[in-house]
Amino acid sequence: MSKFNKFVRNPGIFFRDYFINKYPLSFDEQGHNVVNENILIMDDFRLYNIYENQCSEIIDVVITWVNNNDPNWIKKLKYYKAHSKNNLNRLSIDSSRFENHGELYYVIKSIESHIPWVNSIFLVTDDQIPEFPLSDKVKIIDHKQIISHKYLPTFNSHVIEAHLHNIPGLSENFIYFNDDVFIARKLPKTHFLSGNNLSSLFLNRKNLDQMIKKGVKTPTLLASLNCRELLLKKYNKKISNPLVHAYVPLKKSYFKLAWLLFGNEINNFLPNRFRYDNDLNLATFLVPWMMYLGGKSKLSRDICYHFNIRSASSFSHYHMLNTRKNENILPHSFCANDFISNIQNPFDYKANLMAFLKKFYS
What we know:
Layout lengths: L1 H8 L1 H12 L14 H15 L7 E6 L6 H12 L7 H4 L10 H11 L6 E5 L12 E5 H4 L10 H5 L11 E5 L3 E3 L15 E4 L5 H6 L5 H17 L12 E4 H18 L12 H12 L3 E4 L3 E5 L5 H14 L5 E5 L11 H12 L2
Parallel strand pairs: 1-2, 1-4, 2-3, 6-8, 9-10
Antiparallel strand pairs: 4-7, 5-10
Helix pairs in contact: 1-2, 10-12, 13-14
């Protein structure tokens, strides 16, 4: 009867709710109905509060970053692109892969503002230092400190990620960030690591087999498929889902285990200065799934809005995030991703991104 009364008294709201429930609108890669997002987040927070003080582990953050405006870096990139022995996938060398929009300042600000309990923030770079002032919490790590000189310089994020466990002073538990992922609201330590030392595994609703059927085998997809084969052989489990494009809680000991178990396969792709077909993505697939199969992580929720900053739809995401900030109903995080450089757009997407970030984090 209540539905009938709603239909009679307020037909607009009736049809709105009907279609939202029948065809849920979702902005995150886990597929949550946007109407229910804040309810789910608040319920999770209430659960976190029960055992929030039980998590006493030190947690660091690792960010990989490149400044593509650096003349020395540009010179190296041009040389190794021209002398590559591999038949490079255009997505491996697309300029969007290396584009620096100035967003790193806000990535770090989001971390220091919303997860201030983080111990250290390690910024992994190729002999580069950001132009803005850094707090004492931020430590610069050069590629030469963690990667053998015979593989340098490298422009392959998979190679860099395979060596994160070599960062001097890195804690056992750490969170890996790309430089396009931002925390949107204050988050407790237990969002990433439970009181019984289980890391969070934020799964994507996408399916690897469905992605294959689409016919576009990106370097990331190929690396995930390569990792899946290794996991199948070792654990007799076929993995179907990648992770959301957000931050990744990781354990240093499982990087060491990956090298112990799959050292030959890892060493085989390290010479790839650009992403290639035999790559493995340790930080965003192999190690997180090894942790899960080893009983060291648990499936968890992270509502991360994911959008393309070169798309006209980015305007609606900027507006929605600012509106939700005013209403105090924000997601956990968002990823302002730079997809492909050949997307045609009539607007200054870099200026729009920076204007949004400045307003959002003011």
